[in-house]
Each structure stands twice: as C-alpha cells, then as structure tokens.
Write a structure and sequence with these properties.
The chain starts with 10 loop residues before the first helix and ends in an 8-residue tail after the last helix. It is of the alpha/beta class. The strands form three sheets. It has an eight-stranded mixed sheet, sandwiched between helices. Helix 7 runs parallel beside helix 8. It folds into three domains: 69 residues, Elongation Factor Tu (Ef-tu), domain 3; 274 residues, Rossmann fold; 112 residues, Lysin (Up-down Bundle), CATH 1.20.150.20. The chain has 15 helices and 16 strands. The chain is 36% helix and 19% strand. Strand 1 and strand 2 form a beta hairpin.
Amino acid sequence: MPRDEVAPAGPLAQQAAWLRDYRPGLRVSERGSVVSVGDGITWIAGLPSAALDDILEFEDGSRGMVFDLTGERVGAVLLHETDALTSGMAVHLTGRRLSLPVGDALLGRVIDPLGAPLDDMPAPHPTAWQYLEAPSPPIMARNFVHMPLYTGIKIIDTLVPIGKGQRQLLLGDDGLGRSSLALDTVINQRGKGVNCIYVLIGQKRSTVVNTIETLRGHAALDYTTVIVAEASNLAGLQHLAPFAGCAVAEFWMQQGRDTLVVYDDLVSHARTYRELSLLLRRPPGREAYPGDIFSVHARLLERATCLNAAHGGGSMTALPIVETTQGEIAAYIPTNLISITDGQIYLDRELFAGGFRPAIDIARSVSRIGGAAQHPRIREEAGRMKLDYLQFLELEVFTRFGARLEESMVAAISRGRVLREILKQDRLTPLSEVFQMAWLVAFNDGLFTDISPERLPALLTTLQQQVERSKLDLDSPREQWAQAVGSWLHPPNAGAP
C-alpha cells in the first residue's frame, strides 16, 4: 500500500485490502549482514545498491537509515532502541526513504521524530505521509516575505520585526531567555491561524516537560505539535528531529497555511551530527565537525519560505535557537547559521545582569527582510523610536565619565532611559500588535516625558486595558491614535478636584 494512503481500520479490512492489491510475481531484494553494533550505529556488509538515507530493516524488527557509504561496508544509524540486534543478523534494503505521518491530527500532540506518540495517546490518524528529507521550494515557487509574524514582544515587533517565511536566529548564552522568546512567539499565535511546531533536540527530560506544560498552560498546545528527541535518545533520532519538524510544517505550508517552526537548539543538533560522523570515521574538519555540517543546516533552513499564490500562498517561518559560549558569536556553528538565516536576535549577558529583559542587544540584532513585512504604521513609528534609542545608547557612554553635558543631551538621555524601561517585558506575556502601536504613538508624542520609572508599569497597564476596549486598529488614522492615547494617559478631568 502506498505510504500516503491510510490503512483500513480493523484486521479483516486490512486483510481484504492486502488480498485485493496482491499480485503474484518475482520479488528481488538485497540482503546484507550486520558486522558490528554500538553507540547507536551499525556497520553492514553487503547491500551494494544502498544509497544515503535508504531505510534498512533488521532481522529483529528494528530499522536503521544509511548514513555512510564506503567501498566495502555500509554505515547506518539506528532508529530504535534494541538489545536484540547483534552481529551476523540479516539486513534487508527496503528501497524507501524515511517519512512520517502528517496532518491536523498532529495538532496538540507530542511525538518522536518518527511520528510515534509520546503523550500516552493513540497514534494520530494521518492525512498523508511526508518525507523528512526533501528539496527546498524552487525560486519560482517563492514569494517575497510580505506579511508580519508578530511575536508579542515589544522590542522585537518594533525594532527587529519578523515576517512570515523568514528564518530568524535566536542567539545567546545559556540562561538568557532564548527559549522564552520562542515560547512567547508560539503563545502569541493563538487565534492567528498559524500552526506551530516546537522541536526539542537533545534537551533534558525536565526541560521537555516544562516546555510542554508551558504550552498547555497558555492554551498553545491546541495549535502546536511538539517533536521530542531527548538527550537520552539515540543520536540518530536527535539528528532527524529538526527534519521531522520541517516535514510536518512543510505539509501545512503546501496546503496554503502559515506555520512556525522552532528548532531548540541547532548547536545540540550539530554536536549530534559530529558524534555520528566521528563514529562512522568521516574525516573531521574545523572543531572536529564534518565538512558538510554547513550543508546539513542549509538543507534544513532553506525549506522555510513564503510560497506565491500559484503554489498555495503558505509560509514556513523558522526560529532556530543557537547557544553561544561566553557570548562568542564568531564560533563555527553560530557563524554558519548567521550566514544561512535572514537575521539574528542576540541576547547579551551584561544586559541580562543589569535587569534589562528580554536582554536583546539592538546593536547586534538585525532583521534583514522583516522590515518589508512590517505594517507601514508600525514601521513609521518604530523608525522614529529607534533613532532615539540608538542616540541614547551612544550618549549614555558619556555619563560614565562624569562629563558636563548639554541640556539637549541630558533630555535625550532621560528620554532614552524611559524608553528602556518601556521596552522591558516579563516572559510569557505577549502583547498585541495594536498595543505596540499605542505605546509607540505615546512615546513619540512625548506622553511619557518626565514620567518616573516607578509609574511606567501602571501607565502601560492602563494603556493596554484601553486598547483592548477600543475599536482602533493599525489602519486607523494617526490623528485618531494620538487623540485616543492622549486621553487615555492624561484624561481631561484628571486634575479636577
């Protein structure tokens, strides 16, 4: 039966379907034998027709995938934990590539990279099957990134905007909130028609559980598929995890739907690939990584795009997470991924220690194509605000030397410090794009001038409540926005007895 067809329910129906499709004839298959097994890989003798990524079936019922070819032997990664596989066992070449079930049945589910459920629920009923490895969409099928994907995070949606179909890197040391930014973004897609896939690669069990419970607690699991390959899983499954997440999203994209994929994280994935390559005796390169590590990540991330109307108009937005060491973004893997993606959001340890959270360094963060997808009104207001913030960052340096400053510089510094307080945001509290417009107008019109930092949270809360009750949207005239925001923050009768 073709892999894209769903098997009939019940053993009798399955037997009837098998008998209906059965055709007698000569069947030829290749058979090899296991030479050695260990550390999640196996060496096989025979199988002269084997090709990379072909699926192998072992005599004990487990499966493997061809990962390396030599003149005499085939190197394969194991896809199942098994103690029964030993040297001398027969191996059959299936001639198939690895695929997994996809479709809406995966929403709200936790699965492994092969599609097996991990949430103690029955196996999902698939709509179709999708290859894990597939070519990226051709250039003629792609469209320009033109629609915004709102994260709900003030500093990102205004200063480092992301568009649907973009590949935006989340970069920073451990413990600075990279995963929190990704979770905020997923939570903010509730009700926006975006299917999310969260891929956990080589993470601890506690991290996996916390991620799932966070999504469930914010009602985000209903439109999210979580793909898990823990640190204790086979290295082969950890290597396949991001490709499984990409395949799930790719199916929805081809159906004309918008998707968001989070890869948490690709440094762990690169280390897993290095481990497999060294075990299979591939020649090491820089930092012992194999020479094709760049190609592996490029194949994955190039599949994220925005399709044109002729091809359904769907999109896949990728948020790969990368862990740095001591803030070193010039390391091998971060450098590779920066060159592949469309921008990066860099989290700085000094900003984090200073209480500025999310600790995003604007000077090192960039979105190369997201600005074109930003709403024109937000882009205009954010442009004015960004100039003020960058000027403040330059002028703040002078305050450390105790130099006497001009009155205009003092005012600019004061305005920048207020802005920095506004840009702070607690984790797991995404904000609407309409609220982003409201506070931008308020700041640019000077409504937060001379406001003490202690009063800002209350004013922002008031502004958020008023925005939720109002009928204003991003297309409303600026005059209406200015009038409304002014009346909300400074009511005419505020000073009346």
